[in-house]
Write a structure and sequence with these properties.
This protein has 336 residues and is of the alpha+beta class. The chain folds into 3 domains: 80 residues, Rna Polymerase Sigma Factor, Chain: A (Orthogonal Bundle); 62 residues, Winged helix-like DNA-binding domain superfamily/Winged helix DNA-binding domain (Arc Repressor Mutant, subunit A, Orthogonal Bundle); 122 residues, Nuclear Transport Factor 2, Chain: A. The chain is built from 13 helices and 7 strands. Helix 3 crosses helix 4, helix 4 crosses helix 5 and helix 11 runs antiparallel to helix 12.
Protein backbone atom coordinates (compact mmCIF):
# COMPACT_ATOMS: atom_id res chain seq x y z
CA UNK A 1 0.00 0.00 0.00
CA UNK A 2 1.44 3.35 -1.04
CA UNK A 3 -0.44 6.61 -0.91
CA UNK A 4 -0.16 9.45 -3.40
CA UNK A 5 2.00 12.55 -3.23
CA UNK A 6 -1.21 14.48 -2.69
CA UNK A 7 -1.81 12.56 0.54
CA UNK A 8 1.72 13.36 1.69
CA UNK A 9 1.12 17.04 0.97
CA UNK A 10 -2.08 16.95 3.01
CA UNK A 11 -0.14 15.73 6.02
CA UNK A 12 2.61 18.28 5.46
CA UNK A 13 0.06 21.09 5.47
CA UNK A 14 -1.32 19.72 8.73
CA UNK A 15 1.95 19.98 10.61
CA UNK A 16 1.10 23.41 12.02
CA UNK A 17 -2.44 22.39 12.99
CA UNK A 18 -3.28 21.84 16.70
CA UNK A 19 -4.71 18.51 15.55
CA UNK A 20 -1.17 17.15 15.24
CA UNK A 21 -0.26 18.11 18.78
CA UNK A 22 -3.34 16.33 20.13
CA UNK A 23 -3.12 13.17 18.05
CA UNK A 24 0.60 12.48 17.64
CA UNK A 25 0.99 10.85 21.09
CA UNK A 26 -1.17 7.97 19.83
CA UNK A 27 0.80 7.27 16.65
CA UNK A 28 3.01 4.50 18.06
CA UNK A 29 0.16 2.53 19.62
CA UNK A 30 -1.94 2.91 16.47
CA UNK A 31 0.96 1.45 14.51
CA UNK A 32 0.95 -1.58 16.82
CA UNK A 33 -2.82 -1.87 16.39
CA UNK A 34 -2.64 -1.83 12.60
CA UNK A 35 0.27 -4.27 12.75
CA UNK A 36 -1.79 -6.71 14.84
CA UNK A 37 -4.54 -6.46 12.26
CA UNK A 38 -2.35 -6.97 9.18
CA UNK A 39 0.88 -8.69 10.28
CA UNK A 40 2.80 -6.26 8.07
CA UNK A 41 4.90 -3.34 9.29
CA UNK A 42 4.84 -1.71 5.86
CA UNK A 43 1.06 -1.98 5.57
CA UNK A 44 0.63 -0.80 9.16
CA UNK A 45 2.65 2.35 8.48
CA UNK A 46 0.55 3.11 5.41
CA UNK A 47 -2.68 2.47 7.30
CA UNK A 48 -1.67 4.76 10.16
CA UNK A 49 -0.92 7.46 7.59
CA UNK A 50 -4.37 6.97 6.07
CA UNK A 51 -5.92 7.04 9.57
CA UNK A 52 -4.37 10.42 10.30
CA UNK A 53 -5.43 11.83 6.93
CA UNK A 54 -9.04 10.77 7.54
CA UNK A 55 -8.97 12.03 11.11
CA UNK A 56 -7.58 15.41 10.09
CA UNK A 57 -10.19 15.81 7.38
CA UNK A 58 -13.03 15.09 9.83
CA UNK A 59 -11.53 16.75 12.91
CA UNK A 60 -13.92 19.69 12.75
CA UNK A 61 -16.77 17.19 13.26
CA UNK A 62 -15.17 15.57 16.32
CA UNK A 63 -17.53 16.50 19.15
CA UNK A 64 -15.67 14.94 22.04
CA UNK A 65 -18.37 12.38 22.84
CA UNK A 66 -15.56 9.83 23.18
CA UNK A 67 -11.88 10.25 23.95
CA UNK A 68 -9.47 11.25 21.22
CA UNK A 69 -7.78 7.86 21.60
CA UNK A 70 -11.03 5.94 21.11
CA UNK A 71 -11.94 8.08 18.11
CA UNK A 72 -8.61 7.42 16.42
CA UNK A 73 -8.84 3.69 17.10
CA UNK A 74 -12.29 3.61 15.50
CA UNK A 75 -10.93 5.25 12.36
CA UNK A 76 -7.84 3.01 12.28
CA UNK A 77 -9.91 -0.15 12.71
CA UNK A 78 -12.23 0.80 9.85
CA UNK A 79 -9.23 1.63 7.67
CA UNK A 80 -7.79 -1.82 8.44
CA UNK A 81 -11.08 -3.59 7.72
CA UNK A 82 -11.31 -1.90 4.32
CA UNK A 83 -7.71 -2.81 3.51
CA UNK A 84 -8.19 -6.45 4.53
CA UNK A 85 -10.99 -6.81 1.98
CA UNK A 86 -8.40 -6.51 -0.78
CA UNK A 87 -5.38 -8.31 0.67
CA UNK A 88 -4.56 -11.93 1.39
CA UNK A 89 -3.61 -12.78 4.94
CA UNK A 90 0.07 -12.92 5.84
CA UNK A 91 1.49 -16.08 7.42
CA UNK A 92 4.60 -17.80 8.68
CA UNK A 93 5.77 -21.04 7.02
CA UNK A 94 4.25 -23.03 9.90
CA UNK A 95 0.86 -21.65 8.86
CA UNK A 96 1.11 -23.25 5.42
CA UNK A 97 1.67 -26.87 6.34
CA UNK A 98 3.55 -29.42 8.45
CA UNK A 99 7.33 -29.25 9.00
CA UNK A 100 9.67 -30.79 6.46
CA UNK A 101 11.40 -34.02 7.40
CA UNK A 102 14.21 -33.59 4.85
CA UNK A 103 16.65 -30.82 5.85
CA UNK A 104 18.84 -31.54 2.80
CA UNK A 105 16.11 -30.97 0.20
CA UNK A 106 16.45 -27.71 -1.79
CA UNK A 107 14.39 -24.86 -0.37
CA UNK A 108 11.61 -23.13 -2.26
CA UNK A 109 10.36 -19.59 -1.67
CA UNK A 110 7.20 -17.52 -2.03
CA UNK A 111 6.86 -13.79 -2.68
CA UNK A 112 7.45 -11.32 0.15
CA UNK A 113 3.80 -10.27 0.40
CA UNK A 114 2.98 -13.77 1.64
CA UNK A 115 4.80 -13.37 4.93
CA UNK A 116 4.33 -11.67 8.26
CA UNK A 117 6.98 -9.02 8.95
CA UNK A 118 8.72 -8.44 12.30
CA UNK A 119 7.91 -5.36 14.38
CA UNK A 120 10.98 -3.37 15.51
CA UNK A 121 11.55 -2.78 19.20
CA UNK A 122 14.04 -0.61 21.11
CA UNK A 123 17.57 -1.99 21.58
CA UNK A 124 17.96 -4.34 24.55
CA UNK A 125 20.59 -2.20 26.22
CA UNK A 126 18.53 1.01 26.14
CA UNK A 127 14.94 -0.18 26.40
CA UNK A 128 12.78 0.59 29.39
CA UNK A 129 11.93 -2.82 30.89
CA UNK A 130 8.49 -1.72 32.05
CA UNK A 131 7.58 -0.52 28.55
CA UNK A 132 8.76 -3.75 26.95
CA UNK A 133 6.93 -5.99 29.41
CA UNK A 134 3.68 -4.04 29.10
CA UNK A 135 3.56 -4.31 25.31
CA UNK A 136 5.30 -7.63 24.75
CA UNK A 137 2.48 -10.13 24.97
CA UNK A 138 0.19 -8.24 22.57
CA UNK A 139 2.74 -8.22 19.73
CA UNK A 140 4.52 -11.55 20.24
CA UNK A 141 5.18 -13.16 16.88
CA UNK A 142 3.18 -16.32 17.70
CA UNK A 143 0.12 -14.19 18.53
CA UNK A 144 0.46 -12.05 15.40
CA UNK A 145 0.70 -15.20 13.26
CA UNK A 146 -2.32 -16.75 14.96
CA UNK A 147 -4.40 -13.58 14.55
CA UNK A 148 -3.96 -13.72 10.78
CA UNK A 149 -5.92 -16.98 10.70
CA UNK A 150 -9.04 -15.23 12.01
CA UNK A 151 -11.68 -13.64 9.78
CA UNK A 152 -11.39 -9.87 9.88
CA UNK A 153 -14.33 -9.16 12.21
CA UNK A 154 -13.27 -11.92 14.63
CA UNK A 155 -9.81 -10.38 14.60
CA UNK A 156 -11.28 -6.97 15.44
CA UNK A 157 -13.40 -8.37 18.25
CA UNK A 158 -10.51 -10.22 19.85
CA UNK A 159 -8.02 -7.35 19.58
CA UNK A 160 -10.40 -4.69 20.82
CA UNK A 161 -11.81 -6.79 23.67
CA UNK A 162 -8.81 -8.86 24.84
CA UNK A 163 -5.90 -6.58 23.98
CA UNK A 164 -7.35 -3.07 24.26
CA UNK A 165 -10.08 -3.89 26.82
CA UNK A 166 -12.93 -2.20 24.94
CA UNK A 167 -16.46 -2.85 26.19
CA UNK A 168 -18.66 -5.11 24.09
CA UNK A 169 -21.07 -2.27 23.28
CA UNK A 170 -18.15 -0.13 21.97
CA UNK A 171 -17.06 -2.92 19.64
CA UNK A 172 -20.67 -3.49 18.58
CA UNK A 173 -21.06 0.20 17.73
CA UNK A 174 -17.92 0.13 15.61
CA UNK A 175 -18.96 -3.03 13.74
CA UNK A 176 -22.61 -1.99 13.41
CA UNK A 177 -23.90 -5.03 15.26
CA UNK A 178 -25.12 -6.09 18.71
CA UNK A 179 -23.28 -6.86 21.91
CA UNK A 180 -24.46 -10.47 21.69
CA UNK A 181 -23.05 -10.76 18.18
CA UNK A 182 -19.72 -9.35 19.40
CA UNK A 183 -19.58 -11.92 22.20
CA UNK A 184 -20.25 -14.66 19.65
CA UNK A 185 -17.44 -13.35 17.43
CA UNK A 186 -15.15 -13.22 20.43
CA UNK A 187 -15.95 -16.77 21.53
CA UNK A 188 -15.25 -18.13 18.04
CA UNK A 189 -12.05 -16.11 17.79
CA UNK A 190 -10.74 -17.42 21.10
CA UNK A 191 -11.54 -21.02 20.10
CA UNK A 192 -9.75 -20.61 16.77
CA UNK A 193 -6.81 -18.91 18.41
CA UNK A 194 -6.32 -21.81 20.81
CA UNK A 195 -6.39 -24.18 17.85
CA UNK A 196 -3.83 -22.41 15.64
CA UNK A 197 -1.47 -20.80 18.16
CA UNK A 198 1.61 -22.95 18.90
CA UNK A 199 1.96 -24.20 22.44
CA UNK A 200 4.76 -22.28 24.16
CA UNK A 201 6.38 -22.48 27.56
CA UNK A 202 6.48 -19.19 29.39
CA UNK A 203 9.26 -17.18 27.73
CA UNK A 204 12.01 -15.70 29.83
CA UNK A 205 11.83 -11.95 30.44
CA UNK A 206 13.95 -9.82 28.14
CA UNK A 207 16.11 -8.53 30.95
CA UNK A 208 16.72 -11.76 32.87
CA UNK A 209 20.47 -12.52 33.13
CA UNK A 210 19.85 -16.11 32.03
CA UNK A 211 18.17 -15.01 28.81
CA UNK A 212 21.03 -12.71 27.86
CA UNK A 213 23.53 -15.49 28.62
CA UNK A 214 21.67 -17.89 26.30
CA UNK A 215 21.47 -15.21 23.62
CA UNK A 216 25.22 -14.55 23.87
CA UNK A 217 25.94 -18.28 23.63
CA UNK A 218 23.73 -18.52 20.55
CA UNK A 219 25.48 -15.61 18.83
CA UNK A 220 28.96 -16.90 19.70
CA UNK A 221 28.15 -20.40 18.43
CA UNK A 222 26.80 -19.00 15.16
CA UNK A 223 29.79 -16.71 14.58
CA UNK A 224 32.22 -19.55 15.34
CA UNK A 225 30.24 -22.00 13.18
CA UNK A 226 30.25 -24.28 16.23
CA UNK A 227 27.33 -26.65 15.77
CA UNK A 228 27.98 -28.46 19.04
CA UNK A 229 27.83 -25.24 21.05
CA UNK A 230 24.72 -24.20 19.16
CA UNK A 231 22.98 -27.48 19.91
CA UNK A 232 23.53 -26.88 23.62
CA UNK A 233 21.27 -23.82 23.63
CA UNK A 234 18.50 -25.33 21.48
CA UNK A 235 15.65 -27.24 23.04
CA UNK A 236 14.79 -30.76 21.89
CA UNK A 237 11.57 -29.43 20.34
CA UNK A 238 13.11 -26.35 18.70
CA UNK A 239 11.45 -25.06 15.51
CA UNK A 240 13.16 -23.17 12.68
CA UNK A 241 11.27 -21.04 10.15
CA UNK A 242 12.93 -18.98 7.41
CA UNK A 243 10.53 -16.87 5.35
CA UNK A 244 10.45 -16.44 2.36
CA UNK A 245 11.28 -20.18 2.31
CA UNK A 246 8.26 -22.45 2.60
CA UNK A 247 10.06 -25.31 4.35
CA UNK A 248 10.43 -25.27 8.12
CA UNK A 249 11.89 -27.77 10.54
CA UNK A 250 11.31 -29.04 14.06
CA UNK A 251 13.45 -31.07 16.46
CA UNK A 252 17.01 -30.37 17.52
CA UNK A 253 18.50 -33.15 15.33
CA UNK A 254 16.72 -31.99 12.16
CA UNK A 255 17.34 -28.28 12.78
CA UNK A 256 20.98 -29.03 13.63
CA UNK A 257 21.45 -31.02 10.43
CA UNK A 258 20.04 -28.19 8.33
CA UNK A 259 22.23 -25.58 10.01
CA UNK A 260 25.34 -27.75 9.82
CA UNK A 261 24.94 -28.53 6.12
CA UNK A 262 23.52 -25.25 4.82
CA UNK A 263 24.33 -22.34 7.14
CA UNK A 264 27.42 -22.81 9.33
CA UNK A 265 29.96 -22.84 6.52
CA UNK A 266 33.00 -21.58 8.42
CA UNK A 267 33.99 -19.34 11.36
CA UNK A 268 33.74 -15.59 10.76
CA UNK A 269 31.18 -16.10 8.01
CA UNK A 270 28.57 -14.32 10.11
CA UNK A 271 28.48 -11.30 12.37
CA UNK A 272 25.48 -11.03 14.64
CA UNK A 273 24.11 -8.33 16.94
CA UNK A 274 21.30 -8.47 19.51
CA UNK A 275 18.18 -6.36 19.13
CA UNK A 276 14.48 -6.80 19.86
CA UNK A 277 11.46 -7.51 17.66
CA UNK A 278 7.86 -8.15 18.65
CA UNK A 279 8.86 -7.68 22.28
CA UNK A 280 11.21 -10.67 21.95
CA UNK A 281 14.97 -11.07 21.74
CA UNK A 282 16.19 -10.92 18.16
CA UNK A 283 19.46 -11.05 16.26
CA UNK A 284 20.59 -9.13 13.19
CA UNK A 285 22.73 -11.45 11.08
CA UNK A 286 25.25 -10.23 8.49
CA UNK A 287 26.92 -12.59 6.00
CA UNK A 288 30.48 -12.11 4.78
CA UNK A 289 30.96 -11.41 1.08
CA UNK A 290 33.89 -11.94 -1.27
CA UNK A 291 35.05 -8.37 -0.55
CA UNK A 292 35.24 -9.17 3.20
CA UNK A 293 32.36 -6.79 3.96
CA UNK A 294 29.37 -8.10 5.89
CA UNK A 295 26.00 -7.65 4.23
CA UNK A 296 22.57 -7.73 5.83
CA UNK A 297 21.19 -11.24 5.63
CA UNK A 298 18.46 -12.02 8.17
CA UNK A 299 16.62 -10.79 11.23
CA UNK A 300 16.10 -13.72 13.57
CA UNK A 301 13.31 -13.46 16.13
CA UNK A 302 13.88 -15.91 18.99
CA UNK A 303 11.65 -17.50 21.59
CA UNK A 304 13.91 -18.13 24.59
CA UNK A 305 12.63 -20.07 27.57
CA UNK A 306 14.38 -21.03 30.80
CA UNK A 307 15.22 -24.40 29.22
CA UNK A 308 16.67 -23.05 25.97
CA UNK A 309 15.69 -21.61 22.60
CA UNK A 310 12.40 -23.09 21.44
CA UNK A 311 11.81 -21.20 18.19
CA UNK A 312 13.87 -19.34 15.59
CA UNK A 313 12.05 -17.31 12.94
CA UNK A 314 14.70 -16.07 10.54
CA UNK A 315 13.35 -13.36 8.24
CA UNK A 316 15.79 -13.67 5.35
CA UNK A 317 15.11 -10.24 3.91
CA UNK A 318 17.84 -7.55 3.98
CA UNK A 319 15.25 -4.88 3.18
CA UNK A 320 13.94 -5.17 6.74
CA UNK A 321 17.18 -3.89 8.28
CA UNK A 322 16.53 -0.12 7.85
CA UNK A 323 13.28 -0.54 9.79
CA UNK A 324 15.43 -1.58 12.76
CA UNK A 325 17.94 1.25 12.32
CA UNK A 326 20.53 -1.23 11.06
CA UNK A 327 23.07 -0.73 8.29
CA UNK A 328 22.81 -2.83 5.17
CA UNK A 329 26.59 -3.31 4.92
CA UNK A 330 29.41 -3.51 7.48
CA UNK A 331 33.10 -3.39 6.74
CA UNK A 332 35.37 -5.91 8.44
CA UNK A 333 36.56 -3.19 10.86
CA UNK A 334 33.14 -1.84 11.85
CA UNK A 335 31.70 -3.10 15.13
CA UNK A 336 28.20 -2.57 13.71
Amino acid sequence: MHFSRKAACVMQLAQEDPFVRLTDPFRRELLAHCYRMTGSLQDAEDLVQETYIRAWRSYDRFEGRSSMRLWLYRIATNVCLTALEHHSRRLLPSGLGPPSDDPDHPLSALEKDTWIQPLPGPPMDTADPATIVAARDSVRLALIAALQHLPAKQRVALILRDVLAWRANEVADLLGTTGAAVNSLLQRARTQLRRVAPAEDHPAELFEPGLRALLDQYITAFQNADINALMEVLRDDVALEMPPNIQWFTGRATVGQFLRNNVLARPDMARMFPTTANGQPAVAAYWRGNDDSYRAHALQVLTITHTGISRIVSFNDPELFPNFGLARVLTAEQPR
